[in-house]
Amino acid sequence: MAEVLVFVDHVDGAVRKPTLELLTLARRVGEPVALAVGAGAAGTAGVLAEHGAVRVLTVDAPEFAEYLVVPKVDALQAAYEAVSPVAVLVPSSAEGKEVAARLAVRIGSGVITDAVDLEAGEGGLVATQSAFAASFTTRSRVSRGTPVITVKPNSAPVEAAVAAGAVEALEVSFSAQATGTRVTARTPRESTGRPELTEAAIVVSGGRGVNGAENFHLIETLADALGAAVGASRAAVDAGWYPHSSQVGQTGKSVSPQLYIASGISGAIQHRAGMQTSKTIVAINKDAEAPIFDLVDYGVVGDLFQVVPQLTEEVNARKG
Ligand SMILES: Cc1cc2nc3c(=O)[nH]c(=O)nc-3n(C[C@H](O)[C@H](O)[C@H](O)COP(=O)(O)OP(=O)(O)OC[C@H]3O[C@@H](n4cnc5c(N)ncnc54)[C@H](O)[C@@H]3O)c2cc1C
């Protein structure tokens, strides 16, 4: 059966959820072969095997930690040459997209970024993308070379599918460019204990209607009850109520969770651009005419200062 190469995103051996989603998609088209690079790479094999990886190629070297993306591109190219896959799948992070694009240039292939679905079609793998602020859904196929495709988080379910997961050490010789840009320092972001915004299955966002940084705890409490990430509109970010790293929208992050709850957000086109591919959208807004209600699956016309605490209480009661 044809093999599909999956580039693993992991932190010290802990595989991040978007990679497991890639394995689900890869199994639709062939047998997944995973490539894990860097510190802890060998530790990824167990979980990758549980989710369908028939082979796990691993490589660690100081270059992965000391330099920017090129060593990873070198490793992915070495894996590509060793496996001859029918497709290469990469998580759609900023780094993933750079790695994918550089690989595609090197191997003379077409690249598709930010796919939200993949299927085997006539003439090859067909990727679905959500374009122009999700106003259009496009289906595309790479017409030259082996498709290199980056896939957005939350585009597929994580499915258990036990496979051999045979671990193989990958030989990589680094190119001259690999050591061109050295990492001089790393500062870990302060952890909120909440899931990463772009990967979260549930996002609870607050906008201008939250009316002050001191009220964002309402949004956070609901998010924590649901195990969700917290997002914010640009109005809330520009007012200094929440950090820019949490902004959802055209000039913020794009999210596509299973559930998006917008509180006190009007639904401007630039905000929609970052969230309208969410599977289920709920809005709480006191203005029944707010444009966000054109988009929602469920809308609550009401004051968020009453609705959000009640919702949190109800969620907590059902959990208990
Ligand atoms: C180039 C460009 C890029 C942009 N990029 C982004 C982006 O990335 N992300 C983004 O979000 N915006 C972006 N914007 C800004 C965007 O146009 C809107 O101004 C912004 O999204 C509005 O944020 P908001 O919905 O929180 O505020 P508003 O539009 O002011 O809406 C606040 C809403 O809260 C409701 N409300 C008020 N009080 C309550 C209450 N007590 N209970 C319930 N509801 C209440 C109101 O009815 C209203 O609908 C961009 C704009 C431009 C020009």
From TrEMBL:
Residues 4-183 form the Electron transfer flavoprotein alpha/beta-subunit N-terminal domain. Keywords: Electron transport, FAD, Flavoprotein, Transport. GO terms for biological process: fatty acid beta-oxidation using acyl-CoA dehydrogenase. It comes from Streptomyces atratus. Signal peptide: none annotated. This is Electron transfer flavoprotein alpha subunit apoprotein. PROSITE patterns: ETF_ALPHA. Heterodimer of an alpha and a beta subunit. The electron transfer flavoprotein serves as a specific electron acceptor for other dehydrogenases. It transfers the electrons to the main respiratory chain via ETF-ubiquinone oxidoreductase (ETF dehydrogenase). Binds 1 FAD per dimer. Belongs to the ETF alpha-subunit/FixB family. InterPro entries: DHS-like_NAD/FAD-binding_dom, ETF_a/b_N, ETF_a/FixB, ETF_asu_C, ETF_asu_C_CS, Rossmann-like_a/b/a_fold. Its cofactor is FAD. GO terms for molecular function: electron transfer activity; flavin adenine dinucleotide binding. FAD binds at residues 208, 233-234, 247-251, 264-271, 285. The lineage of its organism: Bacteria, Bacillati, Actinomycetota, Actinomycetes, Kitasatosporales. It comes from the Bacteria.
